[in-house]
Amino acid sequence: MANVVIPSEIYILVLVVILAVVVIFVISQWKKVSQSNNTLKLMEKEIELKKIAMVEKDLENKRLMESPIQLPKEQQEHLTQIRDSTQDVMNNVGYLHSEINERLARLEAQTELRKLEKMLEEIEEKENKLNKDSNKK
Question: In whole angstroms, what is the distance from residue 90 CA to residue 110 CA?
Answer without folding.
Answer: 30
